[in-house]
Amino acid sequence: MDRNEVYERLNxxxxxxxxxxxxxxxxxxxxxxxxxxxxxSHITLIAAVEDEFDISFDMKTVVGLKCVGDxxxxxxxxx
Amino acid sequence: MHxxxxxxxxxxxxxxxxxxxxxxxREDGCVRTPRRIAILGGSxxxxxxxxxxxxxxxxGIDPEFYESDxxxxxxxxxxxxxxxxxxxxxxxxxxxxxNISAYPAPAADATExxxxxxxxxxxxxAAWEALARxxxxxxxxxxxxxxxxxxxxxxxxWDLHGRTYMTAELNRRMGEYARAHRGFYINDIDTLxxxxxxxxxxxxxxxxxYKYSPAPEAVPELAYNLSRIILSVWGKAKKALALDLDNTLxxxxxxxxxxxxxxxxxxxxxxxxxxxxxxxxxxxxxxxxLLSVISKNDEENALAGLNHPEGTLRPVDFAAVFANWxxxxxxxxxxxxxxxxxxxxxxxxxxxPAERKIVSDSFPEAAVPPFDAPEKYARILDRGGYFEPAxxxxxxxxxxxxxxxxxxxxxxxxxxxxxxxxxxxxxxxAEIKGFSPLYIARIAQLTNKSxxxxxTTLRCAETDIARMAESGDFITxxxxxxxxxxxxxxxxVTAAEREGSTFHIRLxxxxxxxxxxxxxxxxxxxxxxxxxxxxAETLRGYxxxxxKNGMVRDLYxxxxxxLREETEAGTVWELSLSDYVPKCDIIxxxxx
Lengths: 79, 592
What we know:
The structure holds two protein chains of two kinds.
Chain A (H helix, E strand, L loop, with lengths): L2 H15 L21 H15 L5 H6 L3 H11 L1
Chain B lengths: L10 H6 L1 H9 L6 E9 L4 H12 L3 E7 L5 H7 L1 H6 L3 E5 L15 H26 L3 E4 L20 H18 L3 E4 L1 H8 L1 H4 L2 H7 L8 H15 L6 E4 L10 H4 L11 H18 L3 E7 L2 H8 L13 E5 L3 H12 L6 E4 L3 H10 L14 H7 L10 H20 L5 H7 L3 E5 L6 H10 L12 H9 L3 E10 L2 E14 L2 E9 L8 H15 L4 E6 L11 H4 L3 E6 L2 E7 L11 E4 L1
Parallel strand pairs in B: 1-2, 1-3, 3-4, 4-5, 6-7, 6-9, 7-8, 10-17, 13-14
Antiparallel strand pairs in B: 10-11, 11-12, 12-13, 14-16, 15-16
Helix pairs in contact in B: 2-3, 3-11, 4-6, 20-21
């Protein structure tokens, strides 16, 4: 799976979790850029991403996520 | 019901699509009962709240939540001022093994170990007692799941210093408390966590990152289990099972294979599965679940199958049997009508997906679980929690017999040309008295379950009923009706509140089990007599229309009340007590 394919599926997850059909995220996107992306919905998001890609981030990885780009890197590492 | 919320559901799907599900439920136009629920958590309860909301919205409850600050369950229960302001109608205490504050020290002797366990239990009872005193509302408390680690290995289960032992001992004491306290319910996460798997439940990552216990992936199951208790407390548990026969209660098709050809009994694995399922159904019946049959069969064949010597169930165990060739949705409607219950109170069980679809298309409010493999039938019904008995009254245990007696009454009725003669022949006897502790569970249950013969649809918890019983301003009445066929138990409830010389009828309802028996007139006579004896001059009745109570729109008019007011909210009626003439002469009534 390449980065573009990851983004395609990742955007679908974001749209579901935040119930916003028009949402599109990219490498530089952070929680500050998405309405409703707070510490609580972050937990839902992480679980949904893990579920979508059938992976499990370890704790250290989760703590290190600063932007969507980090998340995509982590997904590609796990796949 | 929302497709994604039907049991068995995909928890991960619910977690990630929760916003959309919530929006769809909120926009579906259903009328829901608003309820204030406090969630007092020993861990992060955000997900629990959000998913619980979905399951409650899906069943007609519109919850408003109070969530305590992180971990502040005890402080909130004992003296939280914000909780005071919120004034919960139900309190959930979400705690678990992570919230046990102390364990016996390794060197503790038996007495010291016991003191530690008692002190821990006392901390919990203090919270329950404070909640009961402050809010007088139902409390749902988690018991303790098994700990994630075993310091003493297998010995942990029985050694006085073991954490596993301590959770079991605390659970035992909590059970004792529940048996002794009305309105206290246990959410059995000990079983739930075992079912989900302790490894998944105790997720170190979720705890250390977010202080989630259990892990988010266990939350949908947890919220569902909790919602079944809450629904049951508020009278929304299911009442009846509508069962198919061929390949549902036995293997094979009785019409084709003959009674000797169907599979049931201990000879084959297939037969054993159906025997065990029938035995399980029989147990459910004896604790108050109504059984009925909807089967495409000639009645003769259906009855022959039900009389199979290896089966546990017999035709007499069913409150109604529809064995014919009509479409199942039509039989389903007829069944609801015959049992006088709503379609939403029935769980439809059929191995044929096409039949399930026909029924769930016509009755989206009915529960229609998948019935694909006979070895899973009982488990699906069990874990689906449809019949959660938060309260269990003597009435529940006798229910199946009461419905059978009703069938006998119906048979007798057809032999009389004159309806009054039929009523006389029943030799009815009623006990109409003030609410008493013995019947509080049943009375509260009726206020929550009765939808049709219910003038104000005022839903009450047991604590509300107890409050009315103790108030000097209320006349409260329950009515029990028996006749030559048996005892119907408590079937009518009335409560009227005094203001000056008028009694306002806040609560007036009757079980549809005793429609057209003149019981409502006997209740009115009793109320009028008590109100007059208290020196009152007027009874004021209220009819608040709902989607379901059209049958009593004209009840007060029939009683001789005059219409005083008519608004969108309903109608208001008055009756002067000065020239009241008793109306019921067909039931022998015993009053207090």
